[in-house]
Amino acid sequence: VLSVFLSVAQRLAASGGAMVRYKLYRSAVVCAGGPVGEALTRQLLLSPLCSEVLACGKIDRREFESLNVRKKLRYLAEATSGEVDSGGAAARTGAVAGEQAAQPDGLAGVEAAFCVLGGGRWAEPPDMTRAKQFAELCKVASVPHVTLLSTCWADTASKIESAKRHGEVAELFVSCGFDRLSIFRPSLVLLGRAAAGGLGGQGAPQGAALLERAYSVAFPIVRQFMPSAFREVGIDDLVLAMRLNAELCDTAEKVERLDFVDIMKIIGKEDTV
Question: What is the mean pLDDT of the segment spanning 82-110?
């Protein structure tokens, strides 16, 4: 992890790209379960610059039990959830005994917050209520950098309900006026064989609807005739880019919208575009 960190830092320095100062920071992640949220949490835990990760939402604790840095992870129960997964699986976050309840100032001191409630899936936009709650927590805590995982199809004017809802969530975060807001807009997140299931191949998680599975199979074929910005991105590249963008990159824009090409530049793979 450290070697990747230094490699990207050197690339940015050589290219004259702006970088933030090296310093430890605290982060927060809110997700609704699934591979992207867990992969991002792991990425932050393994970062040499991230001193603490506040996890809010459904994250499988067992995924991190083998990590030496697991003590950096702290669970923050959602204020309105009050739920535990069916079957009494206390291994997942929610409202589990011993967790700290989310207070208005629950994110105080957090410098990088990540909202991955939708998991980058065009067919599953984030729950508006939960997204609004997290955005308000970030606003109250004056979190300087907020990252939202959306989709390239997000559009408030779209006639497709899921795309419209993605667009509404993005506009909600924009309206909060954060000092810096990064909106990642992948077309399709490739989850890999271990995280994928059913008919959908590498782009559809277990339990995905048939339409989403079909999209995950057909889109990479159709995409060959589309601009590079619409290329699918692997989950490892995505979460690495989200972390490095918070740690190493700076921008003059208050709101940055990042597609596949931007993601590859962040992680030093611009030659593959």
Answer: 51
